[in-house]
Design a protein that fits this description.
about 425 residues; single chain; alpha+beta; binds zinc ion; 15 helices
Length: about 425
């Protein structure tokens, strides 16, 4: 927490920063859904909550924070500090090689995807995105996420760029509102240098939908030394798509076929060294992969662009781990955060910075819960009862409920905090 500013705002009790960050994380770790639930669910002198947070935060407080203290604290530290805390946690996992099994050809797959964050019927701040539906104007804020995803289903937030109209002042006057508004591509231009600064040595492979298959993204990947596997759609780069289809017919030998256990027939074809000149006149060269999936009578075509030269040996791993895995950000990432008890779209705070602070707390809590759910500690605990984690808990959603019960009624044993032996989490890579 070294980079959170020291704030002393309570006249009688000074809560250490670590304590209040834990207090805020419990909102999401226990999936409480609303701020006031912290009071209803965790404030009871008969329970062990205070003892446990003191142990986690290494503090010795005698009371839990009053209602409003958390919001006040977050207002003081600001969202940026919490964003850095999130980033440092992921960096630590990468350094400790916890995620190494997830690498695709040596690189971590980082999926770019935007999602709605909060929406309002009235203007909430000067920077709201606006959308007109008939006579009604809707106001909203979005976010572009870069999430590190793994084949086993982890989706860890690596970078977040908020999409709103605070950057509009720089835009030339006279453009129509629709053109001037912030969007995911503009947000990417701000996110990319941040990501490089925060993970300068980490090998990354960007993945994303066809929206990101464009000159600025190819250019950023080249500049920062990142690989990419981006969805390729005929409409997005029509001339390149036409070349691709023509060249596919000229190299019928470049094909791999696969039958999956769930009876899908997959046929992969590829072309290397496709060229493209973007609208700024910059040349780009890449490979393209096409995958035709047949299941029963249904035929679906997928395609991706990648900087990797494609061969019969690597086509399947690039397409599956880099291309298709992208959907996990929707399922494991946004869907879980919106509908899995985290309440991503709830308005937790009044102003923009507060909304972002809660957003980062949610990302940190989701990271911790994913490690708990998929880590070896819970697996070993379940094994003591001769069960798998899923059989013992029914569903992963129940784990937040169990966590809440444990925090209330059981004191975390001091041995859990002993420096030696340290608790090690190992992820299931099967
Ligand atoms: Zn707003």
């Amino acid at each position: 927490m070294a980079d959170l500013p020291d704030t002393r705002f309570q006249p009688f009790v000074t809560y250490p920063r670590g304590f209040l960050v834990w207090w805020g994380l419990l909102l999401f770790l226990c999936k409480l859904g609303r701020l006031r639930q912290l009071d209803y669910q965790l404030r009871d002198p008969e329970m062990c909550v205070l003892v446990n947070i003191n142990a986690l935060a290494q503090s010795r407080l005698e009371t839990l924070p009053a209602c409003g203290t958390l919001t006040h604290f977050l207002g003081h530290v600001g969202a940026a500090a919490l964003g850095r805390l999130r980033t440092r946690m992921v960096r630590q996992l990468i350094r400790n090689k916890v995620l190494d099994d997830a690498r695709l050809r040596g690189a971590f797959v980082v999926v770019l995807d935007g999602t709605g964050h909060v929406a309002f019927r009235r203007r909430h701040c000067p920077h709201c995105l606006t959308q007109q539906h008939g006579d009604v104007t809707y106001y909203s804020h979005s976010v572009l996420e870069a999430k590190l995803i793994t084949p086993t289903g982890l989706a860890l937030s690596l970078g977040s760029e908020f999409v709103d109209n605070r950057h509009l002042r720089a835009a030339p006057a006279g453009e129509s509102t629709a053109r001037k508004q912030d969007c995911e591509r503009k947000a990417f231009a701000r996110l990319a240098p941040q990501l490089k600064a925060e993970f300068p040595q980490t090998r990354l492979c960007l993945a994303g939908d066809a929206l990101f298959a464009c000159g600025p993204v190819f250019g950023a990947c080249q500049k920062y030394g990142w690989h990419y596997v981006l969805t390729f759609k005929p409409g997005a780069l029509p001339a390149v798509w036409e070349d691709f289809q023509g060249l596919l017919r000229l190299c019928p030998g470049q094909v791999r076929r696969l039958r999956t256990p769930d009876k899908r027939e997959l046929e992969y074809r590829w072309v290397n060294e496709l060229s493209y000149i973007d609208d700024q006149g910059r040349p780009h060269t890449f490979s393209a992969i096409q995958c035709i999936q047949t299941q029963a009578d249904q035929r679906t075509t997928f395609a991706w662009l990648t900087d990797w030269p494609v061969t019969a040996d690597n086509v399947i791993e690039i397409a599956e781990q880099g291309g298709r895995n992208r959907w996990k950000i929707e399922n494991e990432g946004f869907n879980t955060q919106k509908n899995g008890g985290y309440e991503l779209e709830h308005v937790y705070g009044a102003d923009e910075d507060l909304l972002r602070s809660f957003y980062y707390l949610l990302q940190i809590a989701h990271l911790i819960l994913q490690l708990v759910e998929r880590g070896s500690l819970l697996r070993h605990a379940a094994a003591q009862y001769g069960q798998s984690v899923r059989r013992l808990y029914g569903s992963l959603r129940n784990i937040a409920g169990r966590l809440l019960e444990c925090l209330r009624y059981r004191v975390i044993p001091p041995a859990a905090f002993a420096a030696n032996p340290r608790i090690q989490i190992r992820l299931d890579s099967s």
